[in-house]
Structures are given as structure tokens and as C-alpha cells.
Amino acid sequence: MRPITVVSGAATDVGAKRSLNEDAYLASTPVFAVADGMGGHDAGEIASATAIESFASLVGTGSVQIDEAREAYDRARGRVDALSGDREKGAGTTFAGVLVSEVDGFGYWLAINVGDSRIYRLAGGELEQISVDHSVVQELVDSGRITPEQAGRDNRRNVITRAMGAGSVAEADYWMLPAAAGERMLMCTDGLSNELPGERIAQILREVPQPGQAALILVHEALANGGRDNITAVVVDALSVRGTLAHESVDSATEPREAVQQ
After folding, report:
1. C-alpha to C-alpha distance for 15 and 224, rounded to whole angstroms
2. What is the 8-class DSSP label of residue 135?
3. pLDDT tens digits for 69-117?
4. What is the full DSSP assignment across 168-221?
5. d(CA 2, CA 102)
6. Beta carbons within 10 angstroms of residue 85's beta carbon
7. How far apart are CA 35 and CA 50, in angstroms?
8. Backbone CA torsion sign across 5, 176, 22, 233
């Protein structure tokens, strides 16, 4: 038995304003991830695809340990750095992924994020944003200089402070999250999170049972709300989790996350 048995679905769209889709995604056990490329034609598109491809070698394994995830991430960053150095305007990408993992035989989600693509978890009907945006406006929110509501309208909201490539040397954030059967994970690019409020994202995730259909509806609604950027969503459902009985008394929506230190 895998530590987490999952079913997943994904959807992507170029959006209403762009001519090229610079997003990429992977949705194949045990790796579920999105990447949002930067740098324009023949740069951002390749950067995001390169990041995703670097994790493809993990597909088909039963689970991924933290050292394996770090190796894949470092490999991806090295390849994107090389790509960026070969182009006058540079190239880079965000990355947000959830990998099936385990700790002492118990099923865990291994979450990785750099940039402003996001990771959400729906548990007990409540939506929680797992990742923290690496962006200028998030830093302003964290420092108390603007409110979250103002951040949503700030014209600097697309300026990120960490990435793969694009001259960034910052590390990704990693989390180990105890998993529970019935949880739903969402990875998305900012083309989705900038167009749909959290309340609507939560409602769709609660009401649409099939992950592929949920991903498609999320993308279509983001498109209908403006579609100013490429839009990608990957939805993953935990059907069963090894060791779930040990966590049944814990509300997974409020349980403290276990941060993995660099």
C-alpha cells in the first residue's frame, strides 16, 4: 500500500490576454506540481517545462523522501539557471509542488514552494493556504504596511522575490504535512489565485467531487473573471492514508505544520 492513495486531475489555459502559455504542470503519482515561467517566448515557457521535467524521474515511485525532493529541486534550479544565463533577458519560473511522502510509515504530504504559485489544502471543509507567497506585496503585508485586501489590488502583486533562475539564489520552502483520508490539495499558478477569491476556490473544491472537473471549473471561472494571465490548477484527493487512524483525533485543518529547515 502506498503511504497515500490518490486520484488527481489538472487543467490549464493560456488565458484571455496572453498568446503563449508559460505554465507547466505534472500530475502523476507521487508528484503533483505547477510552474509559472518568466521571461517571455522561448524563455519562460522552457523554464517552467524544465523545472517540471526535473521532477519527472520521481514518477512511478511509491513515495518521495525529503533528500530526493531536494535533489530534484537542486537539479531543476541548476538547469533553469543555465537556461537563464544563455538568454539576454534571462529566464525563470515559480514552482509549487506536493509530493507523496512518509514518515515512520505514516502518510505525509511533502510540499515545496518558490515564488507566488500556491499550495492549498481543503480539510474538514475548510481551505488553508499552505505556501507563503514570495512576493513584494506579501512582504508588505507581513510588515503591516498594507492589508491583505490592499495586496489584492496592489499593482506590484506580480513582482516576486524568489524564483528558480531569473538571477535568484534564494531557496525554496519545504513542509512536511501529516495527511488524512478525504483531504484535497490544490496547486495553482497566480493566474488562478489573482482572479478568484479564496471563498470561491473553497466552494468549488467542496462542491465538485471529481478532481479533474474541479480543476477545470477553477480554470474556467478564472478565465471568466478576466483571465489576465495563464491559468493552471492541479487537484489531488487523498483516498486513503497509511496511518490515518493515528491522526483521526486531530483536525488536519488546524494541526501545526512541520516545517523542514534548510
Report:
1. 9
2. B
3. 999 999 999 999 998 776 667 789 999 999 999 999 999 999 999 999 9
4. --PPPEEEEEE--TT-EEEEE-HHHHTTS-HHHHHHHHHH--SHHHHHHHHHHH
5. 9
6. 11
7. 9
8. positive
Query: Cell triple for residue 205?
Result: 473544491
Per residue in 122-168, pLDDT tens? 999 999 999 999 878 777 776 777 776 666 666 666 778 899 988 88
For 68, the grid coordinates are 530526493
Contact predicate 141/156, CB 8 Å = no
Show the domains of the chain with their CATH numbers: 4-128+161-245 (3.60.40.10)
Return the half-sphere exposure (C-beta side, CA atoms, 13 A cut-off) of residue 220: 7
Amino acid at 202: A
Runs of H (alpha helix) within 11-135:
44-53, 66-85
